[in-house]
Amino acid sequence: MNDFETTSGPAADVPMGGAQRSSLWSVLGRDVPRGVRAGIETFWILARAMVPAYALALVLREIGAIDALAGVASPVMGLVGLPGGAAVPLVLGYVLNLYASVGALAALSLDPHQITVLALAVLIGHNFFVEGAVLRRAGMSAVVFGVARALAGLAAAGVANLIMNALK
Amino acid sequence: MTHLLTQFADGTFHLLLKMFLIVVPIMVAMELFEGSRPYTALVHGWARLVGRLGLTENTAAPTLIGFLFGLAYAGGVIVRDTRRQRITRRQVLLMSVFLSMVHAIFEDSLVWIAVGASAVWVVGFRVLWAIAVTAVVGVVLEAFLAWRGAVRAGPHGG
């Protein structure tokens, strides 16, 4: 399976030049089923991780955990130049995804500067349960990456806020 | 309760459908193009860019997929390639750090640009941020591994 390990020169599997045309169908006949198989296997591995994570995220929202977290996060918002209410789209992004976050944004009246700052925090830290499940499959710690992304996102937002204020 | 189940069913269906429609074609395309000249050139070019961050040629492909399409799709390639033993754990860490900071550069950014965020900041600044964070983690990791190596080698081991 390690036939592409060395990439110098044409790989034995995919002949170059004239040989390619005559063996096109045999290449397709071998690579397409192999790709479909690898795709379905990978899809299955990721689906088994992502669906329970998604269910957990929905339950957390249902029991009010998002509102509680947003309450905790709202004093932090001031540090990056955002109103306390911005904690709701931020935490929705953390637990669910970017679309949920943008959906909650409509309830607030933020200016373009604030939207950009919030966007950075959410674009770096979002969808922790589902994406954490993916990182776990890759052998990383979902918890460490979740915490690190939340902090890194807020740090990036804070830095951006300072630079944008300085440039005004 | 009913609306929660409806939302779960609906959300799961869309999540899985989208995953399936992207993961399977990516895997087929990878099998077809891996080893071909344009693919090698593309990955080689990208590898030269991310190589400065300590990522190797084998890690370049999943990093590029993640950068363009998203973490879940890169995750697919990472899972596949680690199973085929092409990527070391250290490489997975660096790649995960980079992709944690920036992935799905078009889709994710556009969602926010559409509601009024500045494109320069959400794309340009985020890429620079990702590069900086990955570089710092790389340096810290190197220092840690060197320190651990020295400790293991003992006082006379240099």
Biggest protein-protein contact in the assembly: A-B, 63 and 61 residues
Main pleated sheet of chain B: none
Mean pLDDT of chain B: 88
SSE order of chain B, as H and E?
A: HHHHHHH
Q: How many structural domains are formed by the residues of chain B?
A: 1
- Principal-axes shape call of chain A: elongated
Task: Describe this protein with a few key phrases.
heterodimer, A: 168 residues, mainly alpha, B: 158 residues, 7 helices, globular
Description:
- The complex is a heterodimer of chains A (168) and B (158).
- Chain A is mainly α and 168 residues long.
- In chain A, 73% of the residues lie in helices and 0% in strands.
- Chain A has eight helices and no strands.
- Chain A has helices spanning 18-22, 24-62, 65-77, 87-95, 98-105, 112-124, 128-137, 142-167.
- The longest helix of chain A is centred in the first third of the chain and has 39 residues, at 24-62.
- Chain B is an all-alpha fold.
- Chain B has one domain.
- Helix content of chain B is 83%, strand content 0%.
- Chain B is globular.
- Chain B starts with a helix and ends in a 5-residue tail after the last helix.
- The mean pLDDT of chain B is 88.
- The interface between A and B is large, with 63 and 61 residues.
Helix and strand topology:
The complex is a heterodimer of chains A (168) and B (158).
Chain A: H1 18-22, H2 24-62, H3 65-77, H4 87-95, H5 98-105, H6 112-124, H7 128-137, H8 142-167
Chain B: H1 2-33, H2 37-51, H3 57-69, H4 71-83, H5 89-101, H6 105-114, H7 119-153
Helix pairs in contact in B: 1-4, 2-3, 3-4, 3-5, 5-7
